[in-house]
């Protein structure tokens, strides 16, 4: 992590660093039940989407394009869910709200990768799934595969 | 509705027209269980967020700012969920995927408006709620209130 703020972000448990842009950091999310799920966090404190400035938006739009293309090429993802919800920050004993996006690739097919099978049994629906147990090695391989296609 | 495409959008049941910009149409969503919930639909066919072009993004960003400010002023909304999921289009017997956003204001308090009480019992969480039964008159009043604050 290069900046002071990125360091601070570690307490949020957004996942493993995939890449960084000028204004955002992209993490491979802890839960890979949907292969390639990422979190995209702003590199400064913001609580509302309407606080994101012009430069940050332009930078974010490039990330949208990069991630969708990367996932289509790497794993033939069918489509994508994008959302910035920010809900959990408003529960008790949680860190300050921090602007971030969820990127969830969706699949109408199963993907075999490095000996693991990744499925999307609720394709067409939004239903949270428990984290898929995968080894650290597989996580690193997913990161490498996505980076190769960025 | 001014354009051919807007007319076509009627089959999607996105709600009642709130306002239109150059590239998007903003609807008051059918389900007002969270007061001020809107759908923002692109005025041309697109399936992926990465298909949205620069002009459309700039226009969308203005809508983000307008809606968040409007809801803060009109109903003192606490925070907001934004998402483009597109899931249901991939089920059987559904219309073609059509790029649209969901905007869901969230409240840490109840709002009394025109004799109706609007609550957000799952504040801090994402849990779909059944549509709140409100009269057409109340829907029109909500639209007027938001338009007054745009």
Describe this structure in words.
- The structure is a homodimer of 150-residue chains.
- The model of chain A has no long low-confidence stretch (mean pLDDT 92).
- In chain A, helix 2 (54-75) packs across helix 3 (136-148).
- Chain A is 27% helix and 23% strand.
- The first copy, chain A, has 150 residues and is an alpha+beta fold.
- In chain A, 31% of the residues are buried.
- In chain A, the strands form 2 sheets. Chain A has a 5-stranded antiparallel sheet, with helices on one face.
- In chain A, strand 6 and strand 7 form a beta hairpin.
- Chain A has one domain (4-148): HIT family, subunit A, CATH 3.30.428.10.
- Chain A is built from 3 helices and 7 strands; from the N terminus they run αβββαββββα.
- The longest helix of chain A is centred in the middle third of the chain and has 22 residues, at 54-75.
- Chain A has helices spanning 4-8, 54-75, 136-148; strands at residues 16-20, 24-28, 38-42, 79-84, 100-106, 111-113, 116-118.
- The A-B interface holds A 47-50, 52, 54, 57, 61, 64-65, 68-69, 78-88, 90-91, 97, 106, 108, 123-126 and B 47-50, 52, 54, 57, 61, 64-65, 68-69, 78-88, 90-91, 97, 106, 108, 123-126.
- Strand 4 (79-84) of chain A pairs antiparallel with strand 4 of chain B, so a sheet runs across the interface.
Describe the structure concisely for a colleague.
The structure is a homodimer of 150-residue chains. Chain A is built from 3 helices and 7 strands.
